[in-house]
Amino acid sequence: MTFEQLHLSHQLLCAVREAGYTQPSPIQAKAIPVVLSGQDLLGCAQTGTGKTAAFGLPMLQQLAERPAKKTGAIRALILTPTRELALQIGESFSKYGKHLKLRHAVIFGGVGQQPQIDALKRGVDILVACPGRLNDLIGQGYVDLQNVEIFVLDEADQMLDMGFIHDVKKVMRKLPDKTQRQTLLFSATMPKEIEQLAAELLNKPAFVKVDPVSSTVERIEQTLYYVEKGNKKMLLPYLIQNLQPPVTNALVFSRTKYGADKIAKDLTKHGIPAAAIHGNKSQNARITALEGFKAGKTRVLVATDIAARGIDINELAYVFNYDLPEVAETYVHRIGRTARAGADGYAVSFCCPDETDLLKAIEKLNRKKIQVVSGHPWDGVPAPVKVPVIAGKSAKAVKEKAKHTKRAEKTVCIADRNEGAIMEEKELRKAPQGETLSASAKRRRRRRRSKPGAAGQAPAVQNQEKAAQQQSKAKPQNKQQAKPAAPAQPKFDPHFLSAAAANQVRGNAQPKAERPAKNQPQAAKAKNQPKNQPRREKAVQQKPSQQPKAAQQVKPAKAEPKKNAPKAERAAQTKKNRGENPGLMLISRRPPQQKFANFEDYMAARGGATAPVEDYADD
User: Which of 465, 485, 490 is nearest to 542 (CA)?
Assistant: First the structure.
């Protein structure tokens, strides 16, 4: 059969010949006469069989022969699930209707809507649209579907899988009644949901079924490679570079969007120009990748099942199933992208141990075993072990971080930091790993280590200890002059006596002094205090056994400036007292007036736990 026998117009026959078509495909030979007669059609045919021309050619002829009901109104609507398929149908209508005065437009989401709105305002006879953007423009009042004469729902099963069925039904409510329009529905599979949708859409349709989905194209040579999942990324570039006939271009299918990006990146590393196309890509990026693949700039196009629906390349020779599809029917759609328009094609599939069940389902549907290729470099080779990842980082990164943390922990304790230590720590944290401290930081560290009292001791104590260290470091003139170091001084406790002093107190127990009342006069308070006991005790007492006899004698207290004396006189007296004993340090703001042998005596002298707190505001 020829296209002339299908009773097409002269303009359409010229366009068909210019497109290179010689004979109609089975779906075209059966569908075109039905559509020309004005009857509804339910077509079941797998992808790549020429469905676009099957409804596009008769649709153009009908619209060209009869006048429009309303000038500028939309006369035909074609709904498609993906943007790529919408663009593909738009290109086909430009090719088929080049000799006709019919205008068409394509609208879809992912791009700005203003150019699409401008095209609709100029007037459109045939509108190719995706459901989402179409409903948006209908809601904004830019699209009116009341004058639609022909409605086409393409890839109905894919609409169902993508969840567009509700959007499709929303569009259906804007269309004229099914008795007042012609409806064409095409689907590769016929599940029960599609049959129910066809019953709602179609009015006494004709059913055309060609090449059911379970029968694959006989011209496609199918091969299978068993390989571990981790070795797929090495087997794919190897086959692209070594298969015969040579792989000039190839379409690789991935199950996930992330996998598509990763495959394209791995191929690019091996010097194979590749691009990924999936739903997360912007529309401009998807169009650029598809045009580059068709123009030959990109050798490999990696796609997901949804994005690949609109890819129609007659010269495509190879299809690679990097991941086997979870639905067996999807395998037929994938390999159907090759061997189009009567050409030969090759389908290569990878199967890892986790995909054996998917492979069985595919072979069961096709009723044919896929030829297995063995002996390839990764046949039976275990996959490489992945580097463990801890909290989103590799083990090497974690190890380097631990080293850096260990170096940072070598700084001085927070309680012993002074200004130089803080500066050193900041510099250490800012320094990159592997670099040492600067010379200035090292000098600060040496100075700080040479000062045992750098943690905030009084200057007098620091000077005293520094002098003691210098004396100990000084070398004696001879061995006879060297003296043994003095024993360590016990820690001073302002409230309790040493062990020796406590024994003396226990032997000569004195009556406990009564604590003066809070409101008692100052003179009465003075009576309870020991005679010649200074109000502020400054000297650090040592054990009697370790002190010289002269040192054990209590020296008279220094005169304190009178409370009512002028400020200048009191300041001079205080300065004089401090200057006489530069090595002493104030240990307690108010040391006790009496030494106690134990804590019970101390509490009893203070009136017990319920005694009022003394008021030392005057001090």
Answer: 490
* 102 C-beta neighbours (distance < 10 Å), count: 17
Question: CB neighbours of 107 closer than 8 A, spacing ≥ 6?
Answer: 86, 113, 116, 120, 127, 128, 129, 130, 133, 134, 137
Q: What is the pLDDT of residues 255-265, one digit of tens each?
A: 999 999 999 99
Q: How many CA atoms lie within 13 A of 101 on its CB side?
A: 5
The first and second tokens of residue 395, run together, are 């083990």
Task: Tokens 């012993």: give the residue.
Answer: 416
Can you spell out the DSSP letters for 323-387?
S--SSHHHHHHHHTTSSGGG--EEEEEEE-GGGHHHHHHHHHHHTSPPEE----TTTTPPPPPPP
- The answer to whether 51 and 27 have CB atoms below 8 angstroms apart is yes
Beta bridge partners of 221: 346
Give me the half-sphere count of Cα atoms (radius 13 Å) on the Cβ side of residue 259: 16
Contacts of 139 (CB under 8 A, 6+ apart): none
Give the pLDDT confidence of 88-142 residue by residue, as tens digits.
899 999 999 999 999 999 999 888 899 999 999 999 999 999 999 999 999 999 9
Q: Which residues contact 256 (CB under 8 A, 6 or more apart)?
A: 304, 323
Q: Assess whether the previous peptide bond of 26 is cis (omega < 30° from 0).
A: no
Structure tokens at 155: 């890839």
| Structure-token pair, residue 127 | 């509108």
Question: What is the β-pairing status of strands 318-321 and 389-390?
Answer: unpaired
